[in-house]
Amino acid sequence: MPRHIQRSNAGKSVIRSRVEHVFADQKSQTGLFIRTVGITRATMRIGLANIVYNMRRFLFLERISTSA
Q1: d(Cα 45, Cα 14) in Å, to the nearest integer?
Q2: Which residue in 56, 33, 58 sits closest to 45, CA to CA?
Q3: Inter-CA distances, 18 with 1, 42, 55, Å
Q4: How many CA atoms lie within 13 A of 47 on its CB side?
Q5: What pTM value is reported for the model?
Q6: Which residues of 28-60 are buried (b: 16+ CB within 10 A; e: fewer)?
Q7: Which residues of the chain have pLDDT under 50?
Q8: At what angle do helices 3-30 and 39-67 cross, to 10 degrees?
Q9: How far apart are CA 64 and CA 68, in angstroms?
Q10: Contact partners, residue 34, CB within 8 Å, separation at least 6
């Protein structure tokens, strides 16, 4: 495989691994399905899941920084 393709794949892999960890965490919270009627409610539920993830992540990082 040419070098430029290897570098491109490596960059995509870094981004993919960061995003997939977030999706895996949210999947474990909601149980894979968003069971709502309508796109507006589904959007709201996903948005709330994002807020909860960000809050949990913030608290985790804050605890790490104060204990170090």
Answers
A1: 27
A2: 33
A3: 25, 23, 17
A4: 6
A5: 0.67
A6: eeeeeeeeeeeeeeeeeeeeebeeeeeeeeeee
A7: none
A8: 100
A9: 6
A10: 42, 45, 46
AA identity, residue 39 = I
State both tokens at 50: 């994002």
pLDDT computed for residue 17 by the predictor: 87
Name which of 63, 52, 62, 61 is nearest 28 in CA terms: 52
Q: CA-to-CA distance for 8 and 20, rounded, in angstroms?
A: 18
Distance, in Å, from the CA atom of 27 to the CA atom of 23, rounded to the nearest integer, reads 6
Q: What is the pLDDT of residue 39?
A: 92
